[in-house]
Amino acid sequence: MCLVLIAWRGDARYPCVIAANRDELHSRPTAPAHWWQSRPPILAGQDLLAGGTWLGMTQTGRFAALTNFRDPEQRREGTPSRGTLVASILMSGDSIERHLEQLRSVSAAYNGFSLLFSDGERLAIYESARGSGRVLGPGIYGLSNHLLDTPWPKVQTAKSRLSRALSCLSTTDAALALLRDEAPAPDDQLPRTGVSLEWERLLSSAFIRAPDYGTRCSTLLRIDERRRAWFDEWTWDAAGAPAGTVNFQFELE
Fold first, then answer.
1. Domain total of the chain
2. Taking the CA of residue 56 as centre, how many other CA atoms within 13 Å lie in the half-sphere pointing to its CB?
3. Cα(215)–Cα(207) distance, rounded to whole angstroms?
4. What are the angstrom distances between the C-alpha of 236 and each of 28, 29, 102, 196, 227?
5. Whole-Å CA distances, 172 to 54, 177, 226
6. What end-to-end distance do the CA atoms of the chain give, in Å?
7. pLDDT digits (tens, 9 = 90+) for 176-220
8. Whole-number CA gyration radius for the chain
9. CATH code of residue 178
C-alpha cells in the first residue's frame, strides 16, 4: 500500500473515511477484498504469496492499513511479511496501547513500515523508522512510503482533495478521482528516497501506471454517524484499466 488517507472524527456525517491505493508488482498474486474465514471475520484483500493484507476492517469497526517505508539501502532479504501485522491486529481484541507495545518489540525484525490502526474508537500510528507510535486526534492524515504526513506532493494534494470530497461522499466519484490522479510532481518537489530520478517521478503520483509495477487496487471505506459502513474496492490491471470491483455495506456491531 503506497497511499493511505484518513479523515478521522472531523465530519459529523462521516466520522471515519479512508481512501487508499495499494501499489505492488503486477506479478504478485492477490485476492480481492472478501470476508475471511477467521475469528473474528475480517474484510480485506489478501496477499496470496504471504497470506497477509495491506488494509482491512472488522464488523466492530476495528481497522488497520500499512505502507512500506521506502529506503532501498535498509531493505533486507528474508524478513517476515509486513502484511501479517495488519491481519494480526484485526484479529486481536487487544487495546491500542498493547498493540503499540507489541509493535515496538517486533518491528526491528521487519523491513520498514508505517501502520495506521484503530480499535473503532481511537486511532493510532506506529512508525518503525522511529521505533515508536502514538494515538492521533481528530484530523485528516496522509501516509505514503515515509512517515505520517511527510509533505510529499502526492500526500498534500490528496489530503486537500479528500477534505473537499467530504461534502459529497454519498457517491464514490470524488474519492475515486483523487485516487486515480496520475499527475507527477515537478522535479524540484520530488523526494529523494534512494531510487532513480525516473522512479521518483513515476512514484510521485497518487495512481501509478507502469508495465511491471503499479497501483493494483483502490479502496474507499466510509463509516457514517449511524455506524453504517461502506467498503468499496476497485482492482486495476497492468495497464491501469478496471479489472473488477467489490462493494460491501453493513451495520457495525
1. 1
2. 30
3. 6
4. 13, 13, 34, 25, 29
5. 21, 9, 19
6. 27
7. 999 999 999 999 999 999 999 999 999 999 999 999 999 999 999
8. 17
9. 3.60.60.10
